[in-house]
């Protein structure tokens, strides 16, 4: 039997909705919900936190996959990945750098920990590979309200 025919594909994507005031309310294609916060003292995720969260989660899962590929999953106790970054000082608004710290617990020497991190970040993680690439953006715009032209 063809394994591609039996593999379930997880729907991906998100929809953010917000009004004239307030914050974005985000719903994933699978029904996950998160409310975005932007105030410096407010607990919660802002858009950059969500980017860091996506990268850290992907790298952690990818490190586990890397340990498995190396035949060493049984030695892995845990993986923690901390991601932060720095914004670029000029326009357009963007991140100039990601700072990634792996903590790989288990029965590994330094060379093996380094190889797990290298495989996770450099080959396996879809998020890091996407960020390092230059993905194409396709943008469409729709209006929900009728707008009247002043000259019409």
Automatic annotation (TrEMBL):
Record-linked Pfam families: OsmC
Enzyme nomenclature, EC number: 1.11.1.-
Single GO MF annotation: peroxidase activity
Entry keyword Oxidoreductase: yes
Keywords per UniProt: Oxidoreductase, Peroxidase
InterPro entries documented for this protein: KH_dom-like_a/b, OsmC/Ohr_fam, OsmC/Ohrsf
PANTHER family: PROTEIN YHFA
Protein name: OsmC family protein
UniProt source species: Ciceribacter thiooxidans
């Amino acid at each position: 039997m063809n394994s591609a025919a039996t593999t379930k594909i997880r729907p991906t994507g998100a929809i953010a909705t917000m009004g004239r005031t307030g914050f974005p309310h985000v719903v994933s294609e699978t029904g996950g919900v998160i409310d975005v916060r932007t105030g410096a003292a407010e607990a919660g995720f802002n858009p950059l936190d969500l980017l860091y969260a996506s990268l850290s989660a992907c790298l952690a899962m990818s490190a586990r996959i890397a340990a498995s590929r190396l035949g060493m999953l049984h030695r892995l106790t845990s993986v923690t990945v901390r991601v932060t970054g720095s914004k670029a000082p000029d326009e357009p608004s963007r991140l100039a750098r990601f700072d990634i710290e792996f903590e790989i617990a288990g029965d590994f020497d330094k060379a093996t920990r380094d190889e797990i991190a290298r495989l996770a970040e450099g080959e396996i993680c879809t998020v890091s590979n996407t960020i390092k690439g230059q993905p194409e953006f396709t943008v469409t715009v729709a209006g929900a309200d009728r707008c009247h032209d002043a000259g019409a």
